[in-house]
């Protein structure tokens, strides 16, 4: 007597799964279109198990068993592709949640925002070759294929976090340097957030696609990170973005002091916070030493390396508080490893 709990009994299969209606041959497209991810995973699990058994056998190429084997290859590929499409849509909707695609595609007209975007694009371009080399080395590292894929994903996550921090710092510095407080207006920051979310989503999808193509070219069958793992990595990047944007929003709420700088003048109108010539000279020597130690060729390159506007650096050296904010000052000191007292 057959075991009533036998899970392979066709009578016990979930009747709600539309894929169960097609037992042989490729799946019709209309059935695939109404199957949800749960249906697809359930059916794919059964097909994979059967496919694994047949793969161990030898049979005549013209036999019914061979035809069934070829059908299973087609059916498995259909299920995998359809599931990939579902998961891709879920990933995109989750990462860009609340961001309208037309909002992310808006061309900026504010000169301050356009300048900040141009600086970020320049920074990305300068680092592109090094990043691609790092990914190539990771994919050729002495570890399992799955380990290489995970390391490449972790590298992409770290790179996007670094890029987000740099981009937001540049955005804030441009606001401070050119006194463009409206850059921090809610509409502008909401649009900035949407653009960053779309960039993170596209970057993660591109990384997953590149890893899949690498595995296919190498003939590797090891499991790769799924869309949910890429989604988690994207959320970690956007957590950093949201934290920084919250600070910007509170700064805008405290205007007009935000992004305006504070000029402290005496009765005659002279700026009383300016450093003496000796102090300025000493500060310049400190920056020059940092520049040489890090093989930075020019003042413009130094400003880009620090993520601070050149005008703000000049203000910090001279003590002109109208040219920089406290946050910018703290970023510079942290970068060059100097305390406020020594400065």
Characterise the protein shown here.
Helices cover 67% and strands 0% of the residues. With 343 residues, it is an all-alpha fold. It has 3 domains: 13-95; 101-253, no CATH class; 277-336, no CATH class. The longest helix has 34 residues, at 145-178. The radius of gyration is 29 Å and the shape is elongated. The termini are far apart.
Helical stretch tally: 12
The N- and C-terminal alpha carbons lie at a distance of: 88 Å
Strand count, sense and barrel status of the largest sheet are:
none
- What is the mean pLDDT? 84
Give me the strand/helix succession: HHHHHHHHHHHH
Number of domains: 3
Properties at a glance:
343 residues, mainly alpha, 3 domains, 12 helices, 67% helix, disordered N terminus
Could you provide a short overview of the structure?
By secondary structure, this protein is mainly α. 67% of the residues lie in helices and 0% in strands.
Protein topology:
Blueprint: H1 29-34, H2 37-55, H3 64-95, H4 101-104, H5 111-139, H6 145-178, H7 186-218, H8 227-253, H9 277-293, H10 299-306, H11 310-318, H12 326-336
Helix pairs in contact: 2-3, 3-7, 3-8, 5-6, 6-7, 6-8, 7-8
């Amino acid at each position: 007597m057959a075991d009533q709990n036998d899970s392979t009994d066709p009578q016990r299969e979930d009747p709600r799964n539309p894929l169960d209606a097609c037992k042989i041959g490729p799946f019709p497209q209309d059935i695939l279109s109404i199957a949800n991810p749960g249906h697809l995973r359930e059916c794919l699990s059964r097909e994979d198990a059967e496919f694994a058994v047949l793969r161990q056998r030898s049979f005549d190429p013209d036999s019914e068993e061979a035809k069934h084997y070829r059908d299973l290859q087609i059916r498995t590929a259909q299920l995998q592709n359809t599931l990939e499409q579902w998961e891709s849509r879920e990933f995109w909707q989750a990462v860009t949640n609340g961001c309208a695609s037309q909002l992310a595609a808006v061309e900026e007209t504010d000169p301050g925002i356009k300048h900040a975007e141009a600086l970020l694009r320049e920074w990305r371009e300068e680092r592109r070759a090094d990043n691609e080399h790092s990914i190539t080395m990771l994919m050729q590292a002495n570890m399992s294929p799955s380990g290489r894929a995970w390391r490449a994903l972790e590298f992409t996550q770290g790179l996007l976090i670094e890029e987000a921090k740099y981009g937001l710092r540049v955005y804030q510095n441009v606001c401070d340097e050119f006194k463009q407080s409206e850059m921090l207006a809610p509409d502008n920051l909401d649009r900035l957030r949407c653009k960053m979310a779309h960039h993170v989503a596209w970057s993660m999808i591109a990384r997953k696609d590149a890893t899949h193509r690498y595995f296919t070219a190498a003939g590797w069958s090891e499991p790769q990170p799924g869309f949910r793992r890429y989604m988690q990595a994207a959320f970690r990047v956007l957590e950093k973005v949201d934290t920084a944007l919250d600070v910007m929003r509170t700064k805008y709420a405290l205007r007009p002091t935000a992004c305006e700088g504070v000029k402290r003048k005496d009765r005659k109108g002279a700026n009383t916070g300016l450093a003496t010539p000796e102090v300025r000279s000493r500060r310049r020597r400190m920056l020059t030493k940092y520049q040489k130690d890090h093989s930075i060729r020019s003042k413009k390159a130094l400003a880009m390396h620090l993520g601070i506007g050149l005008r703000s650096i000049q203000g910090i050296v001279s003590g002109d508080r109208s040219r920089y904010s406290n946050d910018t000052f703290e970023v510079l000191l942290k970068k060059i490893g100097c305390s406020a007292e020594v400065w």
